[in-house]
Write a structure and sequence with these properties.
By secondary structure, this protein is an all-alpha fold. It has nine helices and no strands. Helix 2 runs parallel beside helix 8, helix 4 runs parallel beside helix 6 and helix 4 crosses helix 7.
Length: about 220
């Protein structure tokens, strides 16, 4: 039997990665808001969920295997993530606030001309890679803890965090899609967009008020 399978540090690291990853990823944020909205609209749910999961896996691996230390050691990178991310989140939040103010079609599909898949994935990519909180959660926080694991336990930690991400985004996207028929009233969409706008504004404000830190 492989030594990795008998080493108690390996399953412990897997559970630690899953719990820590689940706690960080499930927090309300830009990615989750987009996945929820696409799920409720039942538009491009699979590609968006797959993109978010794949991005998390990539960033978790980069963090666990070294990139987290590089980012936290560079004040310039931290400041670029901070102000660039805040600007993008404010712009995205403003769009959501406009939708909440003027209202819109409840189902989106009935609007004739559903959002293009390429544009939707472009937004998902921007919300992932231009959002410094994603880097803080996956690369810096998960990376700094995972990098401290010995040997095969480091891989197990990354696998646990990756599994938590896959479960979360799948449940969020397809769970929202399943609930969509009961949530197609215009008031529900306006409330959702208003919540998204507030979340984006809150995250951006926190970024502008406080320097990014690893811990």
């Amino acid at each position: 039997m492989s030594a990795a399978l008998t080493d108690p540090a390996v399953p412990a690291a897997f559970v630690q990665g899953a719990l820590m990853g689940g706690g960080l990823i499930a927090a309300i944020g830009a990615q989750n808001a987009l996945v929820l909205r696409q799920g409720l609209a039942r538009l491009h749910v699979g590609p968006v969920v797959a993109l978010c999961i794949g991005s998390d896996w990539l960033l978790i691996a980069l963090g666990v295997f070294g990139l987290g230390a590089v980012i936290t050691a560079s004040p310039l990178l931290l400041e670029l993530f901070r102000f660039g991310g805040a600007g993008f989140l404010l712009a995205y939040g403003a769009r959501a606030a406009r939708r909440a103010w003027i209202g819109g079609n409840a189902s989106l599909q009935a609007a004739g001309g559903a959002p293009d898949l390429r544009a939707t994935l472009g937004t998902a990519l921007a919300l992932t890679y231009l959002n410094p909180h994603v880097y803080l959660d996956t690369v810096v926080l998960l990376g700094s803890v995972g990098a401290q694991q010995p040997g095969d336990a480091r891989i197990a930690f990354a696998a646990g965090a990756g599994l938590a991400s896959a479960i979360w985004f799948t449940v969020l996207g397809y769970g929202a899609a399943a609930a969509a028929p009961a949530l197609r009233k215009p008031a529900v969409w306006r409330a959702l967009d208003a919540t998204i706008a507030l979340v984006m504004a809150w995250i951006a404000l926190q970024l502008l008020m406080h320097p990014l830190q690893a811990g």
